[in-house]
């Protein structure tokens, strides 16, 4: 199998974890991601499989768009969205 997959990566897992799971699922060693999403981020994660890994630079070099939601005035015990709220201003 050779080609590209677009994965809708959920929050809470790393890009590398996605690749590791796909390697096991597809029984393929030559798999990689084109760019990295933060483990807390959700979004499209392009995956190259087999011979398509030779073209990963073309995908990585493209323009990207990021969207975020920010809540001001909330502090959590972990400093991220998964923590318990400890302060609100």
From TrEMBL:
> If you read the UniProt record, what top EC class would you report for this enzyme, in one word?
isomerase
Indicate yes or no for the key word tRNA processing.
yes
Q: List, alphabetically, the SUPFAM superfamilies matched.
A: Pseudouridine synthase
Pfam families according to UniProt: TruB_N
Look up keyword Isomerase and say if it applies: yes
Keywords noted in UniProt: Isomerase, tRNA processing
Task: Please give the InterPro entries that the UniProt record associates with this protein.
Answer: PsdUridine_synth_cat_dom_sf, PsdUridine_synth_N, tRNA_psdUridine_synth_TruB
- Among the record's GO biological process terms, what is one? mRNA pseudouridine synthesis
A GO molecular function assigned to this protein is: tRNA pseudouridine(55) synthase activity
What are its E.C. numbers?
Answer: 5.4.99.25
Domain Pseudouridine synthase II N-terminal, residue spans? 23-88
Q: What is this protein called?
A: tRNA pseudouridine(55) synthase
